[in-house]
């Protein structure tokens, strides 16, 4: 029986601008199982990134219940969410978010600085993560010395180095050409299939969604379609 990792029940998200209230997500129910690779699709303004931010603990719902594993994210304070994210979520962004003054190794090490691991153990994990993404020989290079695809692989290594419950990816191939994008998506697929990572990815690209196990379509903050891939 599949193990549910992410569970949303009646989740809504509203923002207030002056006297106006804008509801971005409306009463969503959703389960994501362990080992799923979910692609979130929909037009601009449909609520994809808002949903991703809620699942990743970057924001809290205005209403409803949101569980990731044993954690009730909707009941956590900002400080609790920060600690929880550091332990349980790896983030991959469109523009890599690497620190330009640090080498690939030091960028990948950053999430481990919040742990009690020794420097030697941190570097051991960093090198394993870089090996998984195919960049074992690029650890001393700074971001400016890497191609876009290599930089995104470093970002993925940073996301997996602490062995998180979830990988959360926001348009991870949006800044890459097709060939490089497919290589990065193939790496995410490998992490999902061979390393058992649960992945939630926002994308505008139907070809990117084909690498996922499921596609979820949002429109105006509502779930309009969910499809499993063969």
TrEMBL record:
<dbReference type="Pfam" id="PF00005">
    <property type="entry name" value="ABC_tran"/>
</dbReference>
<dbReference type="InterPro" id="IPR017871">
    <property type="entry name" value="ABC_transporter-like_CS"/>
</dbReference>
<comment type="similarity">
    <text>Belongs to the ABC transporter superfamily. Macrolide exporter (TC 3.A.1.122) family.</text>
</comment>
<protein>
    <submittedName>
        <fullName>Putative ABC transport system ATP-binding protein</fullName>
    </submittedName>
</protein>
<dbReference type="GO" id="GO:0016887">
    <property type="term" value="F:ATP hydrolysis activity"/>
</dbReference>
<keyword id="KW-0547">Nucleotide-binding</keyword>
<keyword id="KW-0067">ATP-binding</keyword>
<dbReference type="InterPro" id="IPR015854">
    <property type="entry name" value="ABC_transpr_LolD-like"/>
</dbReference>
<dbReference type="InterPro" id="IPR017911">
    <property type="entry name" value="MacB-like_ATP-bd"/>
</dbReference>
<dbReference type="InterPro" id="IPR027417">
    <property type="entry name" value="P-loop_NTPase"/>
</dbReference>
<dbReference type="GO" id="GO:1902495">
    <property type="term" value="C:transmembrane transporter complex"/>
</dbReference>
<keyword id="KW-0813">Transport</keyword>
<feature type="domain" description="ABC transporter">
    <location>
        <begin position="6"/>
        <end position="230"/>
    </location>
</feature>
<dbReference type="InterPro" id="IPR003439">
    <property type="entry name" value="ABC_transporter-like_ATP-bd"/>
</dbReference>
<dbReference type="GO" id="GO:0005886">
    <property type="term" value="C:plasma membrane"/>
</dbReference>
<dbReference type="InterPro" id="IPR003593">
    <property type="entry name" value="AAA+_ATPase"/>
</dbReference>
<dbReference type="GO" id="GO:0022857">
    <property type="term" value="F:transmembrane transporter activity"/>
</dbReference>
<dbReference type="GO" id="GO:0005524">
    <property type="term" value="F:ATP binding"/>
</dbReference>
